[in-house]
């Protein structure tokens, strides 16, 4: 198992002139997986990439590459290649020479270089563009050149820093698909940075949600979507209804002045908690069938669904995504299943969270 | 953008204020008014006490302006912006100014004191019969040297410059006539010689001087000599005097083979508005006692024979600045050689400057 | 249509300027070059230019201009590179540019004092026991002072070119395995070559026609085409020959501009 790990961060801290940018970050990346670093602007995503690539040194902590400590190894000696946020293509070289740059430095024979560049370009669907000037390429094409320039070196890890942020929605969706495809075909580790949660959910094997220099939560897209550890993650990963509540006992939680059945356990009785219910997990129904009543305040047509905002009697606002239509001013019933209720403890760390989930699943298997 | 506009506005405003100040100052100095006399002279080339004396005696107000090269002076007179009544060009300039019709003939009847000028300095080739000019001061071209830097070296002849011990020590004036003239003089030819054979000889002789030459410079020669930067210089006696003023170690000699005799002369340029007062002033300066006082101040050699009687005898007997009659006979005034010959001189000089050992 | 009219309107000051201060002087210079010293129309000046004196002068002008440009470049490039890496680069740049605002004559006089017999370098040599050397009025002092004077004009375009390089491009090169030197050779230098060319033009062309310094610092032991023009116009009043040399200088400048001209890439 251990040798399947390509990159390891151990208690890595990074400060810029007393400015704490990364705060005691530890993680492991496995070979051949697609990782996404997700977080708001300035949270330290690029910094993590720069530490992996070797453009900056960690202030504290250790970084391992393939089991070897690489804290002070310069970037040109690491088997990592980066696709930069602004592509950083060489404007004085044509497409072919851009892609061949790394190979020329490694002094490959011209024939081999030609073969490899051709292969890399066909990988990114740019065959025939060899002689084009960089200035003549579109944004999406440039991005693909940047990817080709990275993969042609056959690195162990490719780092991609928000490579899609400059593209329009359609091209972007297409590129997301192509990138994921490419990663599967190459079978090498991708570390992908974005602050777009949908992109992260769509592409990744595993997501790292980062905020203020700390990893808030890591896991598969489904894990993170379904079991956000705290308000930040819940908020960042999709829109959510987050309401204050109180744990009565295992599998019973109270909010909006009522008690509801839930699937969470291992929390002290009467502990204050926060409840997350995803907008698409709430159904509109009649007043009788509804677990909560709400007064409709706005209705927006979003194409696939309606986005409805209503207010309950205690003043909480509820966001609902539904295909059913409602009318402003109407009283409606809101229905959700126990599985839709996610209970979050205040200030729970990732480790504590994992422990609790573990004990919970053990309990379940024991039963 | 705002800053830029402000910058332009402020600079325009400042220029406007300065312009206004200048024009009002000019007016208050009475450039254009009544009985004034505007003099255009080299810097520090007259005893200002005499100027005041003249103003007092005649009631004429004097405006005094200075220039630092003949060319600059001529340009300003050509432009005619200021009405100069008196100017003091060097002798080679007089020919040019006359050709450009920039001079007003002198009325000798109004200059009775002209009789005090030594006959030797009257009616010279650059101004026959002194039609336009009166000699003001004169001098020579010679060797300035610093005995403290060169003990046991004596300079009497141009040949002394070719001494191999003087490697890299000599500074020459940046003037074709002076240097080619020196070459001709050193060979015993006239410095007005235009015989191509003689010129070629002079050029070849000068080429041999190259190892000894430190630099060929303009006005900087004074600075270099004063600061002991160089030991020997070929220059005008006027510059030599200035240098000796600053550095008492330095000495000057007129080479025995002969050399150039130069003059600064008083003229009335075409711009004159007060020709009457100009004559009055010239005559005033020609008065022996006045000339003596002026000479003691300026310290250049005066052409006023009568003035010598009123001067410090030590000054009059200094052979460096009042050479003996035998030596004076060997001094020559530059003749106008014509443009063609002048250009031959210039080309030779240029070639000489480019020559490297 | 209207737009084009507007553009033509804006062109008027520029066109006037060019006609008055560029075209007219060139035509005048060319015109004067056909008159000999006595004012007769002739090709004598051109014939004279092709004599050994003037050819030698041309050659030496080019040689000194080349040396000045070369030394300026090898000092300016690392300086500019260093400047772009410093924290307060604009401040440092200003410090380098400020001396170029000082009058040239003043600087030349300062160097006469510095390089003189009693200047600091000679005192240092004396202290070392080597003894006083002739520094002023040598090729060394001439090139040194010229380089000193021209260096800001070389640094500025190179600095601007370097400053415009995104740091990610350098990172990309290192990322692809390039060492510092390779990054410089393959990426930084090629991408700033236009700045280098501009700098060389700005230095080489005036260096070709330097005067004043040739007298003050080189003691007229260096004679460039510029010196000769100055002499002909101011001292010997041989405007025809001066103009002829100027005509050749203009021709040389055009050739240099064409040779080092930046071809537009793309489009
Ligand atoms: N060279 C630097 N010097 C000082 N502070 C820096 C430097 N580089 C980054 N920082 C700071 O570190 C923090 C994290 O920066 P980083 O570039 O990693 O953010 P990011 O997550 O990539 O943001 P974005 O999504 O906007 O690219 C920011 O607050 C930034 O200001
Ligand atoms: Mg970033």
From TrEMBL, chain A:
Query: Which GO MF terms are attached to this record?
Result: ABC-type putrescine transporter activity; ATP binding; ATP hydrolysis activity
Q: Does the keyword Transport apply?
A: yes
- Keywords, sorted A to Z: ATP-binding, Cell membrane, Membrane, Nucleotide-binding, Translocase, Transport
Reactions accelerated catalytically: ATP + H2O + polyamine-[polyamine-binding protein]Side 1 = ADP + phosphate + polyamineSide 2 + [polyamine-binding protein]Side 1
UniProt-recorded name of the protein: Spermidine/putrescine import ATP-binding protein PotA
Quaternary state and interactors: The complex is composed of two ATP-binding proteins (PotA), two transmembrane proteins (PotB and PotC) and a solute-binding protein (PotD).
What is this protein's gene name? Answer: potA
Report the PANTHER family cross-referenced here. Answer: SPERMIDINE/PUTRESCINE IMPORT ATP-BINDING PROTEIN POTA, SPERMIDINE_PUTRESCINE IMPORT ATP-BINDING PROTEIN POTA
Similarity remark: Belongs to the ABC transporter superfamily. Spermidine/putrescine importer (TC 3.A.1.11.1) family.
Which PROSITE patterns does the UniProt entry name for this protein? ABC_TRANSPORTER_1 (PS00211), ABC_TRANSPORTER_2 (PS50893)
Role noted for this protein: Part of the ABC transporter complex PotABCD involved in spermidine/putrescine import. Responsible for energy coupling to the transport system.
Which InterPro entries does the record associate with it?
AAA+_ATPase, ABC_SmlMolc_Importer, ABC_transporter-like_ATP-bd, ABC_transporter-like_CS, Mo/tungstate-bd_C_term_dom, P-loop_NTPase, PotA-like, PotA_ATP-bd
Under the heading Gene3D superfamilies, the entry gives: 2.40.50.100, P-loop containing nucleotide triphosphate hydrolases
EC number(s)? 7.6.2.11
Query: Pfam families annotated for this entry?
Result: ABC_tran (PF00005), TOBE_2 (PF08402)
TrEMBL record, chain B:
Q: Does the keyword Endoplasmic reticulum apply?
A: no
**Signal keyword on record:** yes
CDD domains registered for this protein in UniProt: PBP2_PotD_PotF_like_2
The UniProt entry lists the main location of this chain as: periplasm
Q: Where in the cell is it found?
A: Periplasm
Q: Name one GO molecular function term.
A: polyamine binding
Spell out the Pfam families in the cross-references: SBP_bac_8
Sorted alphabetically, which InterPro entries does this protein's record hold?
SBP (IPR006059), Sperm_putr-bd (IPR001188)
Cellular component (GO) terms are: periplasmic space
Please list the GO biological process terms of this entry: polyamine transport
Which keywords fit this entry according to its UniProt record? Periplasm, Signal, Transport
At which positions is spermidine bound?
92
Protein's name in the database = Spermidine/putrescine ABC transporter substrate-binding protein
Protein's organism: Cerasibacillus quisquiliarum
Automatic annotation (TrEMBL), chain C:
Cellular component terms (Gene Ontology)? plasma membrane
Family per similarity comment: Belongs to the binding-protein-dependent transport system permease family. CysTW subfamily.
Keywords of the record, alphabetical order, are:
Cell membrane, Membrane, Transmembrane, Transmembrane helix, Transport
Give membrane topology per the record.
Multi-pass membrane protein
- Would you kindly state one Gene Ontology biological process term found in this protein's UniProt entry? transmembrane transport
Its recorded name reads Spermidine/putrescine ABC transporter permease
Q: Which residues cross the membrane?
A: 12-34, 62-84, 91-115, 135-159, 202-219, 239-259
The cross-references to InterPro entries, in alphabetical order and at most eight, read: MetI-like, MetI-like_sf
Protein's UniProt keywords contain Oxidoreductase: no
Location of the protein in the cell: Cell membrane
Entry's Pfam families?
A: BPD_transp_1 (PF00528)
| Domain named ABC transmembrane type-1: residues | 58-260
Highest taxon of the source? Bacteria
| PROSITE patterns registered for this protein in UniProt | ABC_TM1 (PS50928)
